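Possible regression after last week's pipeline update?

I re-ran a chain I had predicted before the update to compare outputs. Posting the input and the new output here so someone can diff against the archived version. Not blocking, just want to make sure nothing changed silently.
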Amino acid sequence: MARASTVLVLLLICNYGTSEVFHFVLNKPPKGQHCCPIDNSKLWRKTIRGIKEDSSAVIERFFNYEFYLPKAQLKAGLEYYGAARRLRKFVRTLLLGDNMPLKIGVIGGSISSGVGTTSYETRWFSIVSKWMRSVSGANITSRNGCIPATPSAYMLMCMEMSVDEDVDLVFVEYSVNDGVENVLVGNRIVKTMEQLVRRIMGLPRRPAVVLVQLPHLFGDIFEPFFHTSDDLEGALSGYYDIPSISLRNALYPLAALYPTDGFLWNQTYGDTHPGDSGHKIIADLAVHLIQETARDLQLDPIDPEEEQELMRPLPESMYFGNIPPPETECIASTRFKGLVKKAVGWGWVNEAKDGNNRGKWGYVSTKPGSKLIFQVDTRRPGVAPSDQIPLLLHYLKSYRGMGIARAECRSGCACEPLDIDAGLKAYHSQTIMIAIRVTQHEKCEMQLTLLNSTTNNGYKFKVSGVTIVGSSDYPADFFTMEFWNQP
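New output (post-update):
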């Protein structure tokens, strides 16, 4: 164990140029015991101060919530507030209640889907949804659209599977799954997030968006404070007026700089995933944001000028031309099974763990020579019939025992054969997409063949879906994002 730790220290020093960049997570609980129960003795409530009595009465019920995170760290965790126009509009409706319909949603990876918690009720989004229903007379519908082990680019191409078109508020959590690219200008993680944000903000009800930024923890260490995309994505918050909450900003001082019992990493995180207390802290940050917005509305109600600003179209993209594809069709999980015409040596498997009710369905093979044939309509309205379009194959990329499959067009459509290596050097697993440019045809028949070669000490290959992009000129380099696979 000491040997492994020493190697890890050396690698980190080489990588970041300093030895003061991480802290070890110590004293993990016995196997089978939850890492991170909530210490109820630390719970506390806010008091309403600084506003008139009649205004205080309006928002009093909104302060019916017990926080776990100390007051100063609640403030630190509100990473960006800005003008918060869309969020103020949402909270105004939340305050009015009157059985008005409101829809809230969350998209992200395994953390916000609930992996690491002991029950549905202890997941942060469940806590926030339950609190909203308890304090508002609005008719609130919530939807957890998170898909574990996927990056933001996956959601960009498959958002219709996870987000209601008439949603009013969307929490977006991808800082862990997207990883880090060490580039300041032209950062591809930020560019992908910009496209996703624009796609959400362009929905019919002009929903509010809140970025939920979480720190990276891996095994016995956590990443240094700066090793995240939080700060670069802050440019999107400012540009698009999107509030942002940061668990890193809130928890790092208590967990690392000034170690405080109840808030240490091993008391809030089990592995890469927060436990019950970690989720409670994320919920605290989200509730704090809503409460402070409600307080803000009492001091500064929405006026006609702000109403006009709310109706403005989205600005030009922050990065020139960085707009989402005009149309996508995502066929994944159990829907993908309906496309398959023949599966020789491939099995339909659910690899979900930790009670993930969404499932991780896909076709899996470990035997070289196995063939999977599926058929899809690649015709796209608005694209010249002679133009090729990107067909995105969803496949698992992982660190152990993965193989290489050849994708090729079998009949109807035409494309260049492509060998796809599912192996990954980093200790990580994600479902990502790779683009195959195909001609358009009503019955485009594709074939996957597992090859008798590997770079990863195995032959496993898993495919779980396809996305058809309705644009012939969508940037090809968008689909070559190595950092998707990096922790």
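Follow-up from reviewer: compared with the archived run. The chain has 15 helices and 19 strands. Marking as no regression found.
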